[in-house]
Amino acid sequence: MYLDANATSPLAEEVWEAMLPWWRDGFHNPSSSHSGGKKAREAVELARAQVADLIGAQEDEIVFTSGGTEAINALLRSWDRVATNGHFLTSAVEHSAVLRCGSALSRPMTTCAVCENGTLDLAAWKELLNGAAFSAVMAVNNETGVIMDWRQASALAHERGIPFFCDAVQAVGKIPVSVADGAVDAMALSCHKFHGPKGVGALYLRRGSQFTPLLQGGGQERGLRSGTEAVPLIVGMGAAAALAKKRLTDGTMGRIAEMRDVFEREVLAGVTGVSVNGDLSSRVANTSHLSFDGCEAAGLLILLDEKGVACSAGSACMSGKQQASHVQKAMGFTDARAKSSLRISFSAHNTLQEAVQAAALIGQAVNKLRSVQGSGVGPVVIYTS
Ligand code: PLP
């Protein structure tokens, strides 16, 4: 039972089928002038149109990359090179791709606080924009599933003439995301989060946005990202984008929301001492972030894995020890609450029956772990059960 779609999502059958011809017979270089090369070029350009269509962009605003991390690094490092004075402003709950890259820039990085429910503190954001050279807020948080107010954050930045970048890796394919109104200057996308292959993503660059490429070489992607295009992966991204667009309106999202809601209802009915974390009125339909009083997530994950349930701890695992993640710290979680949290993330590949079953298995694992922990026996017991 795979309930870890925010880590990566299963490859959709349609995407697999679309990619297949391009691994072997369609091996040509899209820059070649022979007919094989031309066909590969057409496939790449069709994929670009499909990705652009998913987010309401123009085709020439899409640059294919190796994934979200590359898109983020390329953009932030580019803006760092071209901007004059000022700090880089972002939120405290960004993905490490933004925070680590941001802290390696030539200028200081300032992180804006979030509220206890994980949403951006917009009053603080407004203040911190003073003296910022450029700014970034994610669209959806990968741990909690909270939908951030990136449109408002961007509007405030733009009022002051400050460029704004959005990491939409966890949003695209889960909620409608549109750049058609010029709301952002740049955006990062990653294909493996919406049922496509790993190793491919895109950077949306609004026409007229400043950008100097990270990778120099053969001048592919209109000189913005050199390197021979990964044709099968790019084709996969196009097919995944087309599928994601269809699923946003064909009832799939409602089905996923029902799974998540039934799952949470069953968990809450089955065990006591559970908190549902994050802003419940503004989160993506697939994600459930739960804390279980007196129950370490590390132990829960082992018990659940034994039962065939794959999910993630809501906190970070460093050198085998659960630690509060920067997201949980920013939300003001105590260490105990942070260490006792799980992230369950559904996708279109799950069923309602799995959601009910998972809730029951989680309830059993929580009760088992609480009884072991309460007995004074060390958590080592869980490995032998
Ligand atoms: N940003 C967010 C919010 C993510 O969740 C992830 C991946 O987990 C990334 C960026 C990095 O994307 P990729 O895995 O494509 O490098």
Characteristics of this structure?
single chain, disordered C terminus, binds pyridoxal-5'-phosphate
Question: Care to describe what's here?
Answer:
The chain has helices spanning 13-19, 35-55, 68-82, 96-103, 122-128, 150-159, 231-247, 252-270, 297-306, 326-330, 335-339, 352-374, and strands at residues 62-65, 87-91, 109-112, 132-136, 164-167, 186-190, 201-205, 274-276, 287-292, 312-313, 316-318, 321-323, 341-345. The protein has 385 residues and is α/β, with parallel strands linked by helices. The two termini are 20 Å apart. The structure holds pyridoxal-5'-phosphate (PLP). Pyridoxal-5'-phosphate binds at residues 67-69, 95, 97, 138, 142, 167, 169-170, 190, 201.
Spell out the blueprint of helices and strands:
Layout: H1 13-19, H2 35-55, E1 62-65, H3 68-82, E2 87-91, H4 96-103, E3 109-112, H5 122-128, E4 132-136, H6 150-159, E5 164-167, E6 186-190, E7 201-205, H7 231-247, H8 252-270, E8 274-276, E9 287-292, H9 297-306, E10 312-313, E11 316-318, E12 321-323, H10 326-330, H11 335-339, E13 341-345, H12 352-374
Parallel strand pairs: 2-3, 2-4, 4-5, 5-6
Antiparallel strand pairs: 1-7, 6-7, 8-9, 9-13, 10-13, 11-12
This protein binds pyridoxal-5'-phosphate.
The site of pyridoxal-5'-phosphate (PLP) has 12 residues, from helix 3.
